[in-house]
Structures are given as structure tokens and as C-alpha cells.
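Quick question, first post here. What does this chain look like in 3D?
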Amino acid sequence: MPQDNQTGTGAEPENFARLLLTLPRPVKRGLALAMDIVLVAASVWLAINLRIGALPELNAPLAIAVGIAVACALPAFITMGLYRVIFRSESGPALVTVLRAVCISSVPFILIITLIGIDGVPRTVGLIEPPILLLFIAGARAVIHRLLAAPYKARLGADRYRVLIYGAGSAGQQLHANLYRSPQFKVLGFLDDDPVLHGQMLRGEQIFSPSELGALRDRLGVTDILLALPAATRQKRAEIVKRTRELRLRVRTIPSLHDIAVGKVTIADLREIDIAELLGREAVAPDQTLLSRNVLGKTLLVTGAGGSIGSELCRQIVLLQPRKLVLVDNSEYALYGVHAELSRNLEVEIVPVLGSVADEPRMAAVIEQHRPHTIFHAAAYKHVPLVESNPLEGILNNSLGTLVVAEIAARFEVETFVLVSTDKAVRPTNVMGATKRLAELILQALAERETKTRFCMVRFGNVLGSSGSVVPLFRRQILDGGPVTLTHKDIIRYFMTIPEAAQLVIQTGAMAEGGEVFVLDMGEPVRIYDLARNMIELSGLTVRDETFPDGDIEILITGLRPGEKLYEELLIGANSAPTSHSRIQKAHEDFLAWDTLSRELEVLRKLVREQDAEPAIVVLRRLVPEYFKSDVVADASLEYRAV
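> Answer (accepted):
Ran it through. C-alpha cells below.
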């Protein structure tokens, strides 16, 4: 029976708190206002009691003093926003607001009671009452906060995340200040690599060594690690993530160093760490002179402006203040999206052009009208299986479309023409790669002719987050519960972020002299199986395989797709040379003379027009002899010009 009484007694305040939480906000504010009136009256009564050393009589002077105190306090409390504060979230800043409100209300009260005076009320009451009022108001709010916080946390799922903050610097402290008010996060301490800090206390939490993480997980029940290291290198982040991933802990991170500097660290800014932050090597700051040389105050045209690379090129170009930017794309939806985004920049004239690069009259009219100084040719069909199934469209868009725009550029004396190419153009095993290699051959041959246009091309591998990247595909599959599909366990690819790739493309245009193949340093290649595994484990899940059959998500090997390679290359030969940029190399590769190439292109154009796919592919293989398949026989009659 005593046990039952004890349980009942403990439940009553909790039930009362739950009732308060369900009340409408105006009712809650009314109750708070009434409580403060009672507390103000009590503070005056207690102040007189302390002054005279006896219980004051309930007389007119006491009533006048209480009325004056209420008249001074309530307007100050309302003005300072005491009734807009959510009691369950009460904290240090809210108590500072209470202090300010009481100080403001005490000024007229002291003036009336102490300096002017009220008959029957000791003047010293004006000095005694404000500290008592502060104690009552602050104490009442602290009690209510304690009463309401627990039921509110229970209703939301309290301490759902038991976290350690990695980083005891200013970013970690800001993050802790925000998490302190969250009902769903329980901060268990800090981790830091500095041995001097180990064992010390910071904001009431202990700082631990990262080497203790395994023991801390078991002892404290850690579920998440929050990285508060905005300035950490990619390599450092990768090391931390690898260590935490092995312990099957979720890893989240805060935003950039700039966001920390301007005080934007909030719980909402916490996000899952992106695999893109761990791949490749550290990005190199762009050369601002190279970036601006062909852009500042000039007219530029970008084909494929609505695509992954094309749209990022446009974003980077707009930041460099050109006079005009012409957007060309054959997708109405994609063109609308990029135009709407860029049109917010009122300092640059943005011109949307809906049309295909293979439409010669349309492209001629556009280039003649706008007379761009530089053309970035990013328009291409790049999904390998789709182009393999639609070879004529791939040839028309990727190869003949390049021919159309390049010849028009030469006719109207465009200063620079930059082809955005791909590593799949090197010794291609698919139609897409072969059509891109043919586009390169077209520019190399045109560069040998007498023309005022500098033609160049830039090759790079996969860009993270592009429409054809495996990263968004894997992310969707993980969210769907798997399986994550992979074509081969040993397939490897190069990766680069879209912004860095776009900046490097712009810089290559400034370095072009004519006919060069620029190659971007993609860092070390990544094994896609490892990428898939890392993404699963970064999501706090486990891989289901032979060694761990109870894992969450399976990696399913589906087999190589038609035309897919196990690995990609960036150079056909080994004759690359450095440039003025540490991440860009250049090479001059063998190509066909224009007279020979142009005749073959006319044949190819005729076959595409007649929708005759098989002979068209035969011509494509003849023009790109390194395009190898089991039934391909190189044609020795075509003479490639060595460089």
C-alpha cells in the first residue's frame, strides 16, 4: 500500500503537467499573467514583513503598494516578452530576460515608494522588494520548466539520440548550446584529438579521447557522433568516419566554416555526412585570373545548360560577372529550371534558347545574333545503356551536334570553343564513349585549319551528384531498404565534385591555344563496391553478406551492362604535359586530317538521316579505331596524324 501511495503522489504532478501542455496558448499566457500578479503582491507583502519584522496588516497602504507594484511590473513584463517565452524551453537567455524585466519595473517602483513615498509604507520597501520579485519570478519559471520539460520530452521521445560531439572548439560549444534545448538529443560529452583537453570539463560535459569511443559506446549507450569540425580536411573526416563506422555509429556533421562564423549552427543544420565529403582529394582553390579571363564583361554561350555540368558551369560563370550568358538546351523543363534560378542575378543578362545543337539553322541564328566570345559545349547524351540502345541519337547529338556548333563557331569567329568530354572517350567500349571521342577528333581536326577560333576539349571522370552518378542511385536504394545494385564487384571510377569540375573547365578555356586535350586530376580512383558499402554504413545500417547474414541491406551484383568498362582512363597516350594549374594537364593526341574526317562525317550524317544504325556504327568504329569490341576490325586505310 505505501508503494501505491508513493506512485500516486509522483503521478499527480506529472498528470497536472500533461494537462498544462494541452491547454491553448492564450490560456497558458493568462495563467502566467495571473501567477505573476500573485507573485508581485507576495513580494511586496514579504518586503514589508522583512522591513517591520512582523506580519503587515491588510490595509489600504498595503493595497496601494501592491497596486503600484503590479502597475509597474506587468507592462515591463509584457514589453520584454515574458509571456511569449515557452516555459518548457526556459534557459539562461530567458532568465536574463526576466532579470531585465524586473530591473525595468523596479525603476518606477523605487521612484514612487522610496523617493516620493506612500503613507503607511516604509520607504526602504522600494529597495527590498525588487530582489524578492526577481527571486519569485525566476524561481517560479524554473520550477515550471522542470515540471513541464519531462512530460514534453516523453511525448516527443526524449533522448532519442545519445550523442558525443567530436570537436571541443567554438563550433562544438555552439552546437552543445543548441542541443541543450532539444528534447531529442542527450549530449554525453565531447571527443577531441588534443590530449591536453582529455579529462577536462567543458560546458558541464567531460572531454574524452577518441580512442575511448568503443568503451564509451558500450558504457554510455552512444548512438550518434556529431562532427563539429568545419575546417577539417577531407582526409581527416574520412579517418574519423572510418573509425566510427566500424563501431556502427551514425555520423552527422554541421555546416561549413562560414556558417559557423555567422552563428548559423542550429539543430536543423545537422545532417548526415555526405559520401562526397570523403571521396577524392582536397579541392584546390581556383586561379581567379584564369577564371575571369574569358568571362568578365563578355558574352558566353553554354550548350546543355540544363544538365548537371552545364547548369553548374552557368552558376559559376554568373558569379564571374559576364555581360551576357546564353543558355542552350533541348529540354524545356531543364532550361526553365536553370533560367529561373539564374535570372535572380539582375546584373547579368540571361538568355534562354530552346533548341537542339544538331539543328544547324537554329544554332547559326543564335550564334550570329549573340556573338559569344566563348562557347562551352556541354550538350551530350551520357547515359551509357541508353545511348547503347539508341546509337543514332547518340551519334547525332554527341558527334554531329558538336560538328554543327563548332563549324558555326569558326564561321562567326568565336574566340574559344571548349568541349566538355569524358573519360569514357578513352579507348571506348560503348557507343557513348565512341561518339564523344569522335567529337574530340572533330575539334582536333578543326583546330588544324586556318581559323580564329581556339578549339580545345577537357576530359574528366564522374562528377558526384550528376544525373548519371551512382551516388544518388545508391542513396535512393538505401532509403528504400535495398538492395543496392552494383554491376561488378571490382569496378572502379574517378570522382570529382560538380563545382570543382565546372571551375576547372572554365580555367581550361583560358589556357587554350588550339587542339589541346586538357585532363583534370581526378585524384585516386574509387572502388564502387567500397563506395556502396561506405554509404550503407554511413546511414547507420549494416551490409548483409556471407559474413553477416543478419545485416540490413544487401549489395546485389547484377553484371556489367552493355558497353560498360571495369575501369576508366583519362589519356590515350602517355605524352601529357603540365600546365600553369596544378590540377590540369594537357596532351596532343593523334587525330584524323580534316579532309579525310569530313568525308567520313558526310557518310555518317547520311546514315543517321536514313536511320540506318548498323552501317553508322561501322563508320563510327572506323573513325575511332580504339573503340574495341570482339567483332571490331581496325581499318588501316584511315591515316591518323601523329602529334
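Residues 1-10, 257-268, 630-637 have pLDDT under 50 and may be disordered.
DSSP finds 21 helices and 25 strands in the chain.
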